[in-house]
Amino acid sequence: GVLAQCQYLPLATNFAMPQRFGAKNTSVCVDIPVKLKKAKIIFNMDTDSVDGNGNANGLKHMFLMGKVMQEGIKRGVIKPQDVSIIGIMHGSALKWATKAGSEPQRKFMNAIFKLKREGVNIQLETCAVSMNGAGLTKKDLFTYDAEGNPDPKAGGRIYVNQGAFGRELYLQQHGYAYAEEG
User: Are 46 and 164 contacting, i.e. CB atoms less than 8 angstroms apart?
Assistant: First the structure.
C-alpha cells in the first residue's frame, strides 16, 4: 500500500553499488515500498540496447535484482530457495555472450557470476536457435574454451537452452515473472 508519509527507503542501487550511490537513499522519497519474499524472474534480452553509459539494460537490471535478493537473503527476509533469476540472451543481444563481446557487458556478466558463486540462484543463458542462425557454437562463447568445454578461468558459465521462446514459455508456466529487457 501507499505510505501515509513518504520515506527514504533503500533503493536497488544502494544495495548494488553503495560506493557510487551510498548505502542509504537520501534523495528520493518513496511512497510505495516493495517487500519481496520470493523472486522468480526471467530477463528476456533480445536486443542489444544499452543505456547512456554503454551498459546493457537487461544485464544491469538483472544484476541489480540479484543484489537486492542477496541483501534480502542476508537480512533473513528472503529464503535462498525462493530466489531464481534467469537472463536469456538471444537475437542481437547474443553478441554480448561471445568472446568478441563488449567490456561493459562482460563486467555485468562477471558480477552476475560472482553473485552465483556467493549463493544467489542466478544464471545466464543463450538461445541455441540464435546461435545456430549466427553460425556460433559453445566455443564462441566467452565462458567456454576452444573445444567448447566450460572454461574454469571464466568465473562462471553461460548455459545454452534449446530455444529462447520455448524456455521463456516453460518458465512462465512454472511461475516466473517476465521482464522484457530490449
Answer: yes
